[in-house]
Amino acid sequence: MTAARVSIHGGHSKEFGDANDSTLEEIVRTYADKGFEWVGITEHIPPASGDFLFPWEIEAGQTLESRMERFTEYFSVARRLQREYRDFMRILVGFETESYTGYIAHVNSLRSRFQPDYIVGSVHHVRDICIDGPPEWYAQAVEEAGGIDALFCEYFDQQYELIDELEPEVVGHFDLIRMHDRDYRRRLETPEIEERIRRNLEKIKELGSILDFNLRAFEKGGSEPYVSSSILEMALDLGVPCVPGDDSHGVTGVGLHLEKGIEVLTQAGFSTDWPLPGATAHEN
Ligand SMILES: [Zn+2]
Ligand SMILES: [Zn+2]
Q: Were both Cys, which of 103, 137, 150, 204 would link to 133 (CB 3.0–4.6 Å)?
């Protein structure tokens, strides 16, 4: 049996997010055309404060208020599409978190206001510095943390706090911190980093949550998805499910690298009987 086409993380559009093109409807239609069985639409949350608007967003005239309005509109359009496509494809409507100052109260309030089907818990900031941007920002974070190893440790500690506080049904691009580090394979296996990875995976297991097997890593210059193979093995040992996420930004990202991702998961020994986010969470 061939694995069903699914994506647990993505659907970022130009309309409601940071993609270069596409409306959410165009993206959803593309998923349906490509025969996806189910798809999670997980747009980024609006910032917790004006400090976390990116320079180009301020330049484009965005404000906290305009971002909140856009997010409200996102939920209403996504829910409409969820209903309209009901007979063709299952759509789950969620959002993707941040981890900067004030995030816990902010995410909790968005969660109770918008009632998402699930959330993707993602860390894009350490010490309030974005580690998912240009290399200069990453270098700045390395400097402030006092070295790359220390930054990795802080990233996984930040992630643990997020998982513990928010109990996200899905954890997004678990090892994103490796993005600008050519020596990451060795680093992920150094004891103080590896023990944090194990601790976080055990927490994910305890919550019944799922790892986003994030295929956009290939688009960011990586040679393997997030998570990396050593973490994938650990997740398999611990019984943490991994489900592909194309993290699509616009229609061109829909299903991108999915076959490759499914092949890696299958070869590693993962089930392709993909669990739906939220189906197993919070059971205990
Ligand atoms: Zn992300
Ligand atoms: Zn994303």
A: 137
| C-alpha of residue 173 to centroid of ligand 1, in Å | 7
pLDDT at 121 over 70: yes
Distance, CA 190 to ligand 1 centroid (Å)?
25
pLDDT at residue 1, as a whole number: 61
* Token pair of 96 as six digits: 């993707």
Of 253, 250, 261, which is closest to residue 212 (Cα–Cα)? 261
The predicted-structure confidence for 153-171, as pLDDT tens digits, reads as follows 999 999 999 999 999 999 9
Domain ranges of the chain: 6-268
From ligand 1's centre to the CA of 179, what distance in Å?
12
Q: Taking the model in full, what pTM does it have?
A: 0.97
Burial 197-222 (b: 16+ CB within 10 A, else e): bbebbebbeebbbbbbbbbbbeeeeb
Specify whether the CB–CB gap between 196 and 149 falls below 8 A.
Answer: no
97 CA distance to ligand 2 centroid (A)? Answer: 9
Per-residue pLDDT tens over the stretch 127-140: 999 999 999 999 99
Report which DSSP code applies to 146. Answer: T
Backbone angles phi, psi at 111, to 5 degrees: -65, -45
Cα 169 from Cα 208, distance rounded (Å): 8
Ligand 2 centre distance from Cα of residue 120 (Å): 8
Residue 169 CA, ligand 2 centroid: distance in Å = 15
Q: How far is the CA of 159 from the centre of ligand 2 (A)?
A: 16
User: What CA–CA distances, in Å, run from 274 to 84, 171, 257, 266, 277?
Assistant: 23, 15, 17, 12, 9
Cα 219 from Cα 208, distance rounded (Å): 29
Architecture, CATH, for domain 6-268: Alpha-Beta Barrel (3.20)
Ligand nearest to the CA of 17: 2
